[in-house]
Structure formats: structure tokens, C-alpha cells
Amino acid sequence: MKNARMRRVVAAVLLAAAWSAAAAAQTRPNVVLILADDLGYGDVGAFNPGGRIPTPHLDRLAREGLRLTDAHTPSAVCTPTRYGLLTGRYPWRTRLPRGVLWGNGDALIEPNRTTIASLLRDAGYHTAGIGKWHLGLRWAAIPGTVPDRTTNNEKAPVDWIDYRGRITDGPTHHGFAEFFGLPASLDMRDYVYIDGDRVPETPTTTLAGEPSTIPAFYRPGRAGATFRPERVLGDLTSRAVRYVREHAAGRQPFFLYLALASPHTPVLPTAAFAGRTGLGPYADFVSETDASIGEVLQALEQTGAAKNTLVLFASDNGPAPIAGMIESLRAKGHDSAGGWRGAKQDLYEGGHRVPVIVKWPGVVAPGATSRALVSLVDVLATIADVVGRPLLDAGEDSISFLPLLRQPATAVERAAVVVQSGNGSLAIREGRWKLCMAPGSGGLSTPVPGSADERGLPPVQLFDLEADPSEKTNLQSAHPEIVGRLTALLETYRKTGRSR
User: Fold this and answer.
1) For residue 107, which of 169, 234, 302, 443 is within the disulfide window of CB 3.0 to 4.6 Å?
2) Which residues on adjacent β-strands are paired with residue 195?
3) Largest interatomic CA distance in the chain
4) For 69-79, how does the pLDDT look when each residue is reduced to its tens digit (9 = 90+)?
5) Residue 340: closest CA among 59, 73, 78, 89
6) What are 255's strand-pairing partners?
7) Are the beta carbons of 54 and 290 closer than 8 angstroms?
């Protein structure tokens, strides 16, 4: 009798220990954050049933996780979105009021500011960044030269940069134990990789570039001797797969931030994908990007890490209207913007509404969909919630959507989000209402800022996204009380320095 009772006690203790270990693992999952570059809402099949580009790996991720269909980037262009994603702070609060950083640009993330990487590092994670940084770097300067870290345009000089010197402010200074990737966009000079805080192959040759009239566009510039733009997607993918395989078996949870440089220009599908879709090089490149993501997801599955890994996928903004790619695809029956107005750089939905997928086995119900309002600035607070780390004064605009992951049907929706266009114009969204603080797109779509089309238009635009998802009818004159309320809310966010 005593032995039977003892066996029951031991079994109960072991079962409790197993449940405790499972609970502990679930509160400290590995985190893989994948950010595509210039991928449109409509480029992912799971978000665009009428789309023609095959994305089987992202579609499977959506079937196994949660689709967020009303998710937004904090900006319609690259650098500010990446700042907001990593810091949980709206990018219009920084020194960069519009546009993106160029190759000479100094580090944008302030010293000692909490990032997703630093938060997880402090929570005991191994942290790695692989891919496109584009948040500025404090480059070493060649002795005797005058560094230019502030001129922010395409012609900003980079000949003062000492690529043999150590980078004194970059990814490894903001929470990443290791980093491998690009300084900025793949169509921006100079063409080198960064490994940690060094450039392993300094630029000793020159790439001629390609004209902006074709999808393969990239600017001429210096490059490392073996650097080839068409190899970058493969290089980043293999590095990410290797990282997963090296860290999956360890006791330390890991965080991988994989910031792909595709399908941003230069659009360079490899021979294995060129012509595969029959829709042109951009569609082929999207298909190849999907396959690369599939390789990383497969590595998680093959190592057994997938069962305790939170995977979050997003794009950094809408599709790029360059070299006629969007128009060409529309003529073939594919809408990269997924039916939304506008594209990259715009205040309109096509500029900042992006496909977001979250998979977390045991927590996120497979095949779920949520129409809740979400911003990528919310990722920091969500991950802080997941690992039980208080944000305190960090992430001033970040609001956790962990309740949404657990119960998408009952979670309380975010009150409002703010987005920024390419020229620095802002829009604020609250429920069905969206107020654009500009008479036009704020980007590259008609009405273009300063154009004859924009001249004479009302200074703001108010849209009812429930009744008018295509943003065709400006209701600013019909609802001055809503314009006033949203303007005041935006001003409050400005003055207080936070919205959380």
C-alpha cells in the first residue's frame, strides 16, 4: 500500500515537474523575427486569394499561425520602420524627419535605448541579427579626412570611411551578440558585408550598377572583391539556417532577427527562379524570397526547435512602384498592394498596411485571423510580455498584443496608430477613421507632394475605412469634429513623447 502511494506521489511530482518545465519553456520561447523588404500586402497568397505569385511557405506559416490583416508599419519607408520595430518608438520622434539614411549616416538608435535584442539579451537569450541593418553606423574615419555623417542624400560622400576600422556604433552595440549583413539597402553604395563590428572584405573594386528603368536597378559604387548583389539572398539565408542549426540544441533560448534585403531592388532572381512564375522578375524574386524563408522554417522543424519558437513575419512597407513593376503585374492580374490604395512611401494603406503572421505552437491557434489594429512598434512590448520583462520607460509607443495571440476573438483592440510617409507626413488611425495630415499621398502616388494635382486640395484627408477601404472620398469637411479630435490626439502624442 505504502509503495503504491509512494509511486503515485512520485508520479505526481514528475508530472508537475514536466508541466512546470513545459510552462517555463513556453514563457521563454525562441524568437525568430523575419522582415521582408518592400513586399506588398497582396504579394502573399494567404492575404490575397486572387494573387498570382506562389508563396507556399508563407501560406503554410499562415495556416499554422495567426494572420493579422490590419497590421501597419510605423513608416512607409525602410529606415524609420526598422527603428520603430526594434525600439517600440515612433520614428518621427528621432532626428530623421523624412526619408531613409544613406551609407554615410550615423547610428539612428540612441545609446542605451532598449531594443528587442537588448531586452532579450538581458532576459538570457543569445541574440543575432542577419540581413539588412539600414539604421546608420558610426564608421571609422580615414586619418586626415573630415567625416560627413549628416549629409543625407544619394550624393553623400563615403570616401572618408575607413572600412578596415572598427564600427563603434552598430548592431552589436544595440543588443545583438552577433551580426552579419548589409549596411543599408542593396541598391545603395558601398557594397560590403558587416560581420560583427568589422567589414571582412573591404571595397577594392567597383560595381557599375544598373539603370533605374529596370527591376535589377542598383547604384554604381565600390564593392568587396567577391561581393555580388545576386548572391545576397542566398548568403543571408544560409547564414540564418546555420545559426538556427547551431543554437537549436543549446539550453539558451535564441533570438534571430532576419532582415531580408528582398524583394527590394535590385530584383535579381537566380537562375533557379528566373522565369518560374511567368509574371516577370519581381514575381520570381518574391517566389525566391518565400523559398528562402521556407529554408529557415525547415531548419527550425528539422532541429526540433519549431515546437518552442515564436515566429513573427512582416514586411517593412508596401510594394515599391519602381521600373513599372506594380503596373506590369496588375496588367497580368496580380495586385501587389492587395487592393489597397497606394504603395511604398504613401500615407495611403498600400504604403504601410503589410502582411503579418505569428506562429507560436501551443499558444497561437492554427489558421486564426484577426482584424485588430496592430503596429510593428508593438512587437517590443509583446515580446517583453512573453518573457516577463517590464519595459518601464522604454518602448514609448509599444503596446503588447500578447492577449491577441492567445484569444484573437476577445482581445481589446489598440486605440490608435500613427504612420509616417516618405516625405515625413503623418496619418493617425483610430477605429474606422483615418486622418492624413497632408493633401496628397505624401509619397510617390498621385497626388504627389507639390504637384499640380495636389494644389488646391484640402490640407488634410479623412477617410472612413469601413465604408471606403479604397480611400476615395475625403470626408474632412463633413466631419470637422473627428478631424479636430484626431488632430488633438496626435498633438498629445507629440507633446507627451509617448502614446503608451
Assistant:
1) 169
2) 180, 198
3) 92
4) 999 999 999 99
5) 73
6) 31, 127
7) yes
What is the pLDDT averaged over residues 214-231?
97
- Dihedral pair phi/psi, residue 466, rounded to 5°: -75, -45
Indicate the pLDDT class of residue 249, thresholds 50, 70 and 90.
confident
* E strands, 144-189, in order: 178-182
> What is the total count of domains within the chain?
2
How far CA 321 is from CA of 132, 338, 439, 453, in Å, comes to 20, 14, 20, 19
- Same domain, yes or no: 322 and 441: no
Instruction: Indicate if 385 and 478 belong to the same structural domain.
Output: no
Look up the pTM and report it. 0.94
- For residues 397 and 427, membership in a common domain is answered with no
Q: Residue 79 — φ and ψ, nearest 5°?
A: -55, -50
Cα 146 to Cα 460: distance, rounded to the nearest angstrom: 43
CA atoms within 13 A on the CB side of 235: 19
pLDDT tens, position by position, 280-318: 999 999 999 999 999 999 999 999 999 999 999 999 999
What's the CATH number where 443 sits?
3.30.1120.10
Per the structure block, which three cell numbers stand in for 292? 528562402
Q: Rounded to 5 degrees, what are φ and ψ at 125?
A: -90, 150
Same domain, 403 and 426: no
Give the CA radius of gyration of the chain: 23
371 and 433 in a single domain? The answer is no
Please report the pLDDT score of residue 408 as a whole number. 87
- The set of cell numbers assigned to 238 is 544560409
* Residues 377 and 423 both lie in one domain: no
Choosing from 392, 410, 428, the residue where a domain stops is 410
Instruction: Find out whether 346 and 420 touch, Cβ atoms under 8 Å.
Output: no
Q: Is 53 left (phi over 0), alpha (psi -120 to 50) or beta?
A: beta
Q: Which helix (H) or strand (E) holds 285?
A: helix 281-302
Asked if 158 and 136 touch (Cβ cutoff 8 Å), the reply is no
| Cα separation, 381 vs 243, whole angstroms | 25
Helix 281-302 and helix 56-64: axis angle, to 10°?
A: 50
Which pLDDT score, from 0 to 100, does residue 27 have? 63
Whole-number Å distance between alpha carbons of 108 and 83: 8
- Domain containing 370 equals 28-410
Structural domain contains residue 225: yes
Q: Which amino acid is at 425?
A: S
d(CA 483, CA 476): 6
**Does residue 111 sit in the same domain as residue 202?**
yes
CA distances from 460 to 19, 68, 353, 438, 454 (A): 55, 28, 20, 5, 11
**CATH no. for residue 329?**
3.40.720.10
Transcribe 420-450 into DSSP letters. Answer: E-TTS-EEEEETTEEEESSSS-SSSSSSPTT
Q: Residues for the chain: how many in total? A: 500
Mean pLDDT of 250-257: 96
**Cβ-contact 46, 355 below 8 angstroms:** yes
Domain final residue, candidates 387, 410, 433: 410
